[in-house]
UniProtKB/TrEMBL annotation:
SUPFAM superfamilies in UniProt: Trimeric LpxA-like enzymes
Keyword vocabulary terms for this entry: Acyltransferase, Repeat, Transferase
Organism: Acidovorax facilis
Name of the protein in question: Acyltransferase
Entry-linked CDD domains: LbH_MAT_like (cd04647)
Length: 217
């Protein structure tokens, strides 16, 4: 008797809107891809990727900008109700966990200057990178231009506007670094000089941590 797997997408070798798919990928039939224009290799999945029900993969106009695209690494799991925007470029590494209803937004709308009607203003685009082994918790939002480092954790419900270095845990609205995964406390800098010192000590992965927040889509 064949084992029954309830709530887990079946294996598939193709899905509407996906350009390239590796072996043993699971994609629920309810997963939708929004794209138009002609361009190949824009949406590519490596081996063993799983994308659960009601997830939305958004590319928009695939010829609008060379950065448009979604690449998902091997064995990564995108849980139910995710919203992944590749309009500004989205690269997800291997063995990444993306929790239910998480949103990765690589594009937005310019809000300064221009027309008073936001919909008439230019689209802003900046690539999101999620490195190998990271975990983005349920309901978290990651904004354009952010890098989530290798093995980093974004807590459920967090709003991430700045980079999260490898091995760190970020939580809150907006998100801030709270500790490393090894349990070491993350000190609060008392001055810009102290902040700069910590940036230098921890490494180049923190170079964007104290820069101004990005616009919210």
């Amino acid at each position: 008797m064949t084992d029954m797997l309830l709530g887990i997408p079946a294996f598939t070798t193709s899905h509407a809107g996906v350009d390239r798919m590796g072996a043993e990928c699971r994609i629920d039939p309810s997963v939708s891809v929004m794209r138009f224009g002609q361009r190949s290799d824009v949406l590519c999945l490596a081996d063993g990727v799983s994308i659960y029900a009601q997830t939305r993969l958004v590319l928009g106009d695939v010829v609008a900008d060379p950065c448009v695209g979604i690449l998902i690494g091997a064995r990564t799991i995108v849980n139910v109700g995710g919203y992944l925007s590749g309009e500004g470029g989205l690269e997800i590494g291997e063995d990444v966990l993306i929790g239910p209803h998480a949103k990765l937004l690589s594009a937005g709308h310019a809000i300064d200057g221009g027309d008073v009607v936001i919909a008439r203003n230019r689209i802003t685009r900046a690539k999101i990178v999620v490195e190998d082994g990271a975990w983005i918790g349920a309901g978290a939002i990651v904004l354009e231009g952010v890098t989530i480092g290798r093995g980093a954790v974004v807590a459920a419900g967090a709003l991430v506007r700045q980079d999260v270095p490898a091995g760190m845990v970020a939580a809150g609205m907006p998100a801030r670094l709270i500790r490393s995964r090894r349990g070491e406390a993350w000190p609060e800098p008392e001055s810009e000089a102290a902040a700069a010192c910590w940036v230098q000590r921890v490494g180049s992965g923190l170079k964007s941590f104290f820069r101004e927040g990005r616009e919210v889509k």
